[in-house]
Amino acid sequence: MEINWGIIGVGDVCEIKSGPAFNAIPHSRLVAVMRRSSALARDYAQRHGVPKWYDDADALIGDPDINAIYIATPPHVHAYYTQKAAEAGKTVYVEKPMARTHAECLDMVDTCKKAGVPLFVAYYRRALPNFLAIRRWIEDGIIGDIRFVDIQVHKPLMPDIVGASKNPDNWRTDPEIAGGGYFHDLACHQLDMMDFLLGPIEEASGYSLNQAGIYKADDLVTGHFRFKNGLPGMGSWCFNLSENAQKEVTTIYGSKGTLAFPFFGDHSVTLHVEGREPENHRFDIPVNIQAPLIQTIVDQVKGVGHCPSTGESGARTNRVMEWIIGV
Fold first, then answer.
1. pLDDT 10s digits, 211-240
2. Strands (E) located in 87-164
């Protein structure tokens, strides 16, 4: 069985992170791309050797040569295109965050179940070697019994980790499009990974506010959460600080040591076990960073594997974000 892909919304994320991976995986092929601008859709197709391009999403979804759809648009249309793709009988792979709200996520899961098609979410870190190593070290008890988790993302008004320009008017900070601000865009990766490493979070609370007032979304979020297994965690996501106050690290504390690692830009993990010198582990990450996760999607659709990032797990992450911001 060949997995023939169509992409809705070939923007920046498709240039290196995801788009080229579809042609680099056995039994996977990128057949068509779509963007509302004909010129940009055609340009992407020509540069990446894609046979077809569209400026109409319905035309791409209806293409009989396509059996899987990657929705790479901003979150406000994820649910809409998921429904259309599912009703057309296509496998659905959607960018993160899965949608603007938990309710939209549940609708997407229900739609795909009724249509009998699988639904996957682009939390690609679940398949990267650094996070698989962290999970293995936790399971092997290298740092002892886990005590708690601390997530810190402290950035200036124009955070480098999203490539923000000097113009703050972008979709990531428009709640109508993104569901929130940089918290929704970035914390979803971390909270999803906590779900992957330590199990589902079943309770969370927090506080959010807009301190700088340069865009509609909140720019400061703090939260506490509790995993189903009883472990506690905390997080602070601030996007209004000075340049010299920048910090981005997640630390998992155990009875015998710690695991500390960033999510953005650096793929190292610092393992510090009691009585030993800290060890900094570095990992080879593919240039097309979504490729390992896309490989698991292709394997599952072919019936020879399992993808770790599903609609159900993606919906849990949206639910936790809503708990933290008090929705």
1. 999 999 999 999 999 999 999 999 999 999
2. 91-94, 119-121, 146-154
The side-by-side arrangement of strands in the sheet containing 91-94 is: 52-54, 28-34, 3-8, 68-71, 91-94, 119-121
pLDDT (tens digit, 9 = 90+) per residue, 150-176?
A: 999 999 988 877 655 445 558 999 999
Residues of the chain with pLDDT > 90, as a percent, come to 95
Q: Which CATH number fits domain 129-284: 3.40.50.300, 3.30.360.10, 2.60.40.10, 3.30.43.10?
A: 3.30.360.10
Q: What CATH number matches the domain at 3-125+300-307, 3.40.190.10, 3.40.50.720, 3.90.470.20, 3.40.630.10?
A: 3.40.50.720
pTM: 0.96
Under 8 Å between Cβ of 187 and 321: yes
Q: How far apart are CA 2 and CA 19, in angstroms?
A: 17
Where do the domains of the chain lie?
3-125+300-307, 129-284
Round to whole Å and give the CA distance between 158 and 88. Answer: 40
